[in-house]
């Protein structure tokens, strides 16, 4: 039976990789057709698309009344995005940082992390009121991005693959379906294999599920970076983290209040610290090189070891 799970796990990875390839090509083409900077596409279409697995897991948990998993899933996914996704991309191909992301979107990501942490610390749960507030903030952010994109239309002079509008949409839809289905295969079968190895439910929830639902961000960002779409790659990470915090936690807690405990507070604080640390590294260096990438990956390895230790 484990052999079947291993096969399906590999199949899931294949779907993720090919789906990301199609998704990046389609999204980049849309940016070119609309004369919109690729960073905006990365912060919106790509970010929300690759966050679909997190949304599915958290919202389903909220509907079923067991939405405690929502916070651990979002926090774990965001830490993975910030350290592993950015770190691995830098190890494969160092990249320059987009000034717009550094000055506008990255600070917004930090503020969002601080807001959620504050809600967790000063309340016994993320209430429906908290959820509605987060959704309103998300709506404001998206409106701001759309207005900014319309004001900053520009002619594309790069070598982005040009597709027809219909083919661009087909690429995005097929890529997204492959990414989501591939992510499901990876999460489901990795969880079965992990349980067979005797790992605890807590460890599986904060690592296997969080990492599995973040694989679309990882694969999409790597593919985008290799194609020279560095703005789209970093925009994907920052946009996904904002989407996870504002929309996914907002909608999940709007459906049903999410109880919090000391572990949720500790992980929320850790997310904020890691986000600020990566931001400082980016601002001071202006470029994410292999040394910075190795440091980020090492920090995630330490974080995983910590989770394994505390069970």
Outline: globular
Helix content: over 70%
Order of helices and strands: HHHHEHEHHHHEHEH
Distance between the termini: 26 Å
Count the beta strands: 4
Order of adjacent strands in the largest pleated sheet: 1-4
Question: What's the helix and strand layout?
Answer:
Elements: H1 2-33, H2 38-50, H3 52-64, H4 68-92, E1 95-96, H5 99-121, E2 125-126, H6 128-151, H7 165-196, H8 201-226, H9 230-255, E3 258-259, H10 262-285, E4 287-288, H11 290-310
Helix pairs in contact: 1-2, 1-7, 1-8, 2-9, 3-4, 3-8, 3-9, 4-8, 4-9, 4-10, 4-11, 5-9, 5-10, 6-9, 7-8, 8-9
Describe the overall structure.
The chain is globular. The strands form two sheets. It has a two-stranded antiparallel sheet with strand order 1-4. A two-stranded antiparallel ribbon has the order 2-3. It has eleven helices and four strands, in the order H-H-H-H-E-H-E-H-H-H-H-E-H-E-H. By secondary structure, the chain is an all-alpha fold. The model has no long low-confidence stretch (mean pLDDT 80). Helix 2 crosses helix 9 and helix 8 (201-226) packs antiparallel against helix 9 (230-255).
Q: Which key terms come to mind for this protein?
A:
311 residues; 11 helices
In short:
The protein is mainly α and 311 residues long.
């Amino acid at each position: 039976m484990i052999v079947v799970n291993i096969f399906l796990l590999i199949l899931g990875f294949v779907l993720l990789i090919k789906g990301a390839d199609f998704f990046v090509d389609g999204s980049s083409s849309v940016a070119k057709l609309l004369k919109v900077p690729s960073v905006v596409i990365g912060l919106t279409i790509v970010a929300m698309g690759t966050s679909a697995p997190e949304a599915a897991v958290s919202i389903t948990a909220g509907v079923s009344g067991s939405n405690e998993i929502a916070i651990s899933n979002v926090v774990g996914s965001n830490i993975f995005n910030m350290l592993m996704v950015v770190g691995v991309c830098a190890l494969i191909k160092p990249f320059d940082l987009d000034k717009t992301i550094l000055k506008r979107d990255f600070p917004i990501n930090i503020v969002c992390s601080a807001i959620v942490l504050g809600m967790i610390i000063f309340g016994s749960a993320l209430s429906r009121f908290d959820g509605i507030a987060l959704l309103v903030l998300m709506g404001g952010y998206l409106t701001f991005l759309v207005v900014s994109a319309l004001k900053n239309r520009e002619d594309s002079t790069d070598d982005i693959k040009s597709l027809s509008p219909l083919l661009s949409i087909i690429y995005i839809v097929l890529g997204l379906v492959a990414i989501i289905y591939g992510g499901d295969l990876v999460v489901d079968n990795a969880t079965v294999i992990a349980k067979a190895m005797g790992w605890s439910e807590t460890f599986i929830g904060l690592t296997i599920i969080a990492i599995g639902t973040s694989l679309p961000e990882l694969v999409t960002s790597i593919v985008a970076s290799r194609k020279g779409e560095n703005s789209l790659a970093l925009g994907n990470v920052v946009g996904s983290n904002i989407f996870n915090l504002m929309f996914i936690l907002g909608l999940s807690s709007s459906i049903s209040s999410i109880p919090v405990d000391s572990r949720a507070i500790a992980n929320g604080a850790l997310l904020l610290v890691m986000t600020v640390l990566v931001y400082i590294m980016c601002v001071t260096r202006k470029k994410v090189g292999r040394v910075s990438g190795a440091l980020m990956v090492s920090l995630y390895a330490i974080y995983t070891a910590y989770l394994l230790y505390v069970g």
